[in-house]
């Protein structure tokens, strides 16, 4: 019951026409939070369980590191940032469900995800329908920024064509033109193998190969087939835990003595999961931590190690760039509105402390694909530290590897 001051009687209040509705009038006033008190919610959907979980977790780690960094410097548009993470479980239906939940129930302003290209594409259908700004940190299949590009979708990792075009000349020059592919049978694998075949045929090469389920565990039949084909190079295009298992069986068969190894991606998380004799081959890295001549990278790696107790991988960098991309786009647009942020990001160049590599790194306006450097080089057993497993021999700029916007098949349609 509310306390009425003695100098004002209840009868006096009634006479003056004031109605005490449950004593709300003279109790403490209801405080309405201002928009500035509400966090900017960013939703992330990634396969935290399943064969791609290590890669997914690194993207989350990088995003969380950026979240803390951004909040320490005042947040986004003067508001703190809150990252909400959901597990797609490496399943398309689950990924779509989690995306809708983040948008409809949690009211996120932006969606990030997914590592799995098929899930990322399905998520983009939802975000486009809802007019939500969507960044794909690590799903590589070409149509996302190619034939199925969308005004609201931007991508950080390379297309499969970019990675294939970057590493193919080195593999042909060093080892030869007869290749065998071991490729995952889903969106990423199909576009990656197609890109490699196109580049190999251009060089006059021949090939054989198998497409296997993304969660394969036994590669013996395919490796026997590869052994009989006698290729110059075996390209292991699998990902995550599946790639590790394939590499282990490759070395158990002693095949490293008969053919070279290579491919588009052999990521830090996967390399460290392999025995030393399987830490080999020529590959493309989409970002690499050991860049001693780039001061921003040296500082970032030192700070990241201190905060997380690990060395950042390309996947950590993807998550880090994704969060800062939201900040950069919203700052330029002065808004969290999807169409305004998308327009602001077109041809935006990442600052050096976000790009973390030499040269100009921008989101190309025509297809919304980031144009970074691609680090081509050799994987080797650990040297000075457990993370010293790769020598970057060549930097191929993204613009060179990607080709023109017209070649991607992207025909961007502006929002209605």
Major pleated sheet: 5 strands, parallel
- Briefly note the structural class of the backbone: alpha/beta
Low-confidence stretches: 1-32
Distance between the termini: 54 Å
The gross shape turns out to be globular
- Helices and strands, in order, run as HEHEHEHEEHEHEHEHEHEHHHHEEEEHH
> What is the gyration radius calculated from CA atoms?
26 Å
In percent terms, what proportion of residues is strand? 15-25%
Helix content: 40-55%
Kindly state the number of beta strands.
Answer: 14
SS field, number of helical segments: 15
Strand order of the main beta sheet, please? 2-1-3-4-5
- Kindly report the average pLDDT value: 92
- Please give the oligomerization state of what you see: single chain
Can you put this structure into words, describing what you see?
With 416 residues, this protein is an alpha/beta fold. 40% of the residues lie in helices and 16% in strands. It is built from 15 helices and 14 strands. It has helices at residues 10-15, 53-72, 92-104, 117-130, 160-175, 187-202, 220-229, 240-252, 268-271, 295-308, 314-333, 338-345, 352-355, 398-402, 405-408; strands at 40-46, 81-87, 110-112, 133-136, 153-155, 178-184, 206-212, 233-236, 260-262, 282-285, 362-363, 370-371, 373-379, 390-397. Strands 2-1-3-4-5 form a 5-stranded parallel β-sheet, with helices on both faces. A 4-stranded parallel β-sheet has the order 7-6-8-9, sandwiched between helices. The longest helix has 20 residues, at 53-72.
